[in-house]
From TrEMBL:
Protein name according to UniProt: Uncharacterized protein
Organism classification: Archaea, Methanobacteriati, Methanobacteriota, Stenosarchaea group, Halobacteria
Species the sequence originates in: Halorientalis pallida
The organism's place on the tree of life at top rank: Archaea
Amino acid sequence: MATNTRTAENASVRPQWLFCGTDTTGTDHVYNTVTDSVIAVAPDGHREHVADLSEASIDEWMAFVAQKRGWANRRLYEHFGDALADRVSSV
């Protein structure tokens, strides 16, 4: 009888790339879960910024963008309730 053994390689279900959203300037923010960094891509397709999150969390980055630029289309939230509240308020 075969057994399923979890390893570090197959235990993760989180994708390598997560789309965080688009800020009010039209810049897309994409989180790399492997390198723990965020890449900001300008509307013209050029890389605007790469943020190393080794000293911060993705939630702190999301809050930073919300404060500095605001989100036009936010896709990543710390809590489900925050996502739900944002969707309800935009209707």
